[in-house]
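FYI - complex with zinc ion, inputs then prediction.
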Amino acid sequence: MRALVKYGNRPRQVEIREVPVPEIGAGDVLLATRAVGVCGWDLEMWQHTMANPVTVPVIQGHEFCGVIAAVGAAVRGWRVGDRVVSETSAVICGACPQCRTGNYQFCPDRKGFGYGVDGAFTDYVRVREGCLHRLPDNVSFDHGALTEPACVAYQSVAVLSRVLPGTPALILGPGPIGLFCLQMARAQGAGPLIVAGTGRRPERLEAARILGADAIIDISRDDPVSTVMAMTGGRGVPLVVDAAGNEKALAVALRTVARQGQITKVGWGPEPVGLSLDPLLSKAARLQGTFSHNWPIWEAVLAMVAQGTLRLEPMISHRCRLEDWESVFSDLESGRGIKAVMQFHPEEPARGVGTGEPRRDTNPHE
Ligand SMILES: [Zn+2]
Ligand SMILES: [Zn+2]
C-alpha cells in the first residue's frame, strides 16, 4: 500500500512510499482508512519544525476514521465493517497513575499515531481496540476525521476552562483549533464571542463569522487590545483562548484577560517568550495549559457532532487524495484554506450513511 512517510529529520524529508499492510496483534483491529484530516502538526513534521521529536521513518496522519477490515483474536465488541473513528493515543503503558485514572493522554510512555507509531495517511492502520469509537450513522467519514481537533477544543474549553453563559470570550487565532474552541464556547453559552486573527487569512475570519463569532478583529488592521477593551467596557474578557501560541498572542491575552479571568493556552510555540507574567498576578488570573483528550471527551464530541451542535462542513476547505499531499500541505502552510481531509478507498460505498447500501462484512484481505 502507498503511504505518506516522514523518512528523515530534515525539512521536507517526506514522500509517498510503498509499505506493507500492517500485521495486527490479538487486541488490535485493522482499520481501512476512509478520511484523514491534515493537522498543523503534519505541516510541522514536513518542515521539521515540531516542538517534540519523532521517530523516523513513520507514516504521518493522526486524525482518522474508517471501516474495520479485520479484528484480532481477543477483540470483543467490534466487527468487520463497523464504521469507527480512532483516538490518537496509539500506545500507552496501562499501569502508570495517569493510565489507571483514565488520563492516559498524559501517560509518560504514550506514543501517538503519525509520529510515535505509524499513522493514517495510507490505506490501512493498526489500531488497538481501546482507541475505537463508533462513528454515528449520520456522520460522514469526512466529518468523522475532524473529531480529533474538536476533542482538543473540548478538553481546552469545556474541561479545562471556566465558561459561564452570557460572559464574553476571546479566541486568538482562527485556525482549525481556534474555530473549534469558538464552537465549544458557543455551545456553552458564552458570548459575545470575539475572534482575532489576521486578514491575510480571510477564509479563516469568514469561517469564524459563519460559525458564530459575534465580533471579528482583523489584527493586520486593528489593535486587538484596545478593540477588546472597548467592547467590554474596559473590563476585559473572563476567558481568553490562545490558539495562536506565539509571544504576540500571549501578550494580547495578558492585557485583555479580565481580573480573576483565565487564559487557556492551546497553541504551541517553541520560541521562548520575552514578556512579564506580572499581569497574571495583579489580575489574579490563571494561565492554563491543555493537551490532547481521552475517552469521555471523544464520546461527548461524537454526540455533539451527531446532534448538529458542532458544525464541521464550514471547517473543510480541501478534499484531496494521497497523491495531492504536497500541493495541499503547501496551500495550508501559506495560509490558504482551513482544514484538509484526505480521502481513501472512495470506490467503496459508504455503508450506513444514507446510501441504502447493506453493510458488507467482508475482509478485503480474504
Ligand atoms: Zn491534529
Ligand atoms: Zn501509562
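The CA atoms of residues 199 and 218 lie 5 Å apart. Residues 92-93, 95-96, 98-99, 104, 107, 109 surround zinc ion (ligand 2) (CB under 6 Å).
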